[in-house]
Amino acid sequence: MLALHHMLSRRLPFFYGWVVLGCASCAGFARQGPAVATLTIFVAPMTTEFGWSLSEISGAVSLGGLLAAFSSPLLGPLVDRHGARAMLCWAVLITGVASLLLSQTQSLLVFYLLFCVARMNFAGPFDLGIYGAVNNWFIRRRPIANSIVTVALMVGLTAMPLIAHFAMISGGWRAGWVAVGLTVLVIGFLPTFLLMARRPEDLGLQPDGDIDDAGTESNRSGAGKPEPTFTRAQAMRTPAFWMLLGFTFLGYPVQSGVSLHQAPHLIERGLDPTTAATVVAAFSLFTGVFGFLCGMMVRRLGIRLVLSVSGLFMTAGCLAMIWVHEPAQAYFAAAIFGVGLGGLLTVPPIAWADYFGRKSFGAIRGVALSVQVSAQATGPLISGVLRDWTGDYVLALQVFAGLSLLATILILLARPPKHA
Q1: Cβ count near 329 (within 10 Å)
Q2: Which domains does the chain show, CATH number per domain?
Q3: How far apart are CA 1 and CA 197, in angstroms?
Q4: How far apart are CA 24 and CA 28, in angstroms?
Q5: 228 to 143, 264, 352, 420: CA distances (angstroms)
């Protein structure tokens, strides 16, 4: 494959990193098969057929996230050494097959076995592979590259629930899982397998496509300063590492908890399932659009300001969802929350790479991802347990609003570390 990549990089009239970005975007689209926004479409029909509680079905999301939390610190260094191609190929294959097999679910145990595997891939290997590839190939253009990946992720997150919903209309929820599995395999595998390359240096190139025999540009950050070269151990000794980690711990339960239970909450408020599905899709669309804009504003406004504004929008979005009783209100709340979530999904990968560099990005991101997916695992559980306890989602949304506000305060303390 390396020979093919060499040949293409010489013949293409543009930087080969854009090809890698395209592969990462296809993988990002495919990643959304086991996303909580996709699973939310299946919650009502599966709980109705099998009599499962919301806490039980939420537990699969949480357990899959915990499995990713244990595996991510081990997988991160593999991305640094071997690149993202193999990890993403396996992630796509396993996720696609697991989604297809979910159509044959007959028990809660089988659902847990299959969905936990898919969710572990979603939270661990997909994230490490996608952002490991993008942040290795881009430094100066890192914000735009990460913004494009976020758009691809949100296009997938917009499309997957609709793909599942319309397949379910004609064939039930089992047909929905078949449609999701086939989409994952068709879009995610071939581009990654054939065209993904590890680092620009492997092809005799510089990051961002810069031409500099001395390597000056390739060792420059977006701010014009020397690119940092922290090891994982060095990064963990900086206050910035722990402030970013704290923001992650507080922010990501909100993302997963709201996303999974958004459709059931809307249906409980009187919206029909089709309207709820389109609100979920609109929420994902807003997330993608504003994720792109947040990425573009990082260099101008700074990481801390963009993330703090995102946290405030997430807080407002959670509170707005409490008052939803009709479609217009639902779209408004989804838009506000989507604006905040766009920043949460786009900017942290840029922050980890900008603050600590490319050399050990996978290892550092692996530790951070362990906290992220653990936090994401708690969100659906909080929503499900509080819903079963109180009879609605009001208390859960109030808790998530509080967590978002605390994350906003904490991120303001995350000053960039001194370069190693």
Answers
A1: 17
A2: 2-411 (1.20.1250.20)
A3: 8
A4: 6
A5: 17, 45, 11, 6
- Do the beta carbons of residue 98 and residue 117 sit within 8 Å? yes
Structure tokens at 328: 């217009």
Give the span between the Cα atoms of 67 and 175, in whole angstroms.
27
- Give, as one character, the DSSP assignment of residue 219: G
In degrees rounded to 5, what are phi and psi of residue 339?
-60, -50
User: DSSP secondary-structure letter at 420?
Assistant: -
Contact status, residue 318 vs residue 340, Cβ threshold 8 Å = no
Place of tokens 């703090």: 308
**Angle (deg, nearest 10), helices 239-268 and 54-82:** 140
- Rounded to the nearest integer, the mean pLDDT of the chain is 86
Q: What does pTM read for this prediction?
A: 0.77
Cα separation, 218 vs 358, in Å, equals 11
- Residue-by-residue DSSP string for 97-127: HHHHHHTT--SHHHHHHHHHHHHHHHHTHHH
Q: pLDDT of 70-92, one tens digit each? A: 888 888 888 888 888 999 999 99
Structure tokens at 334: 């989804």
Helix (H) or strand (E) holding 244: helix 239-268
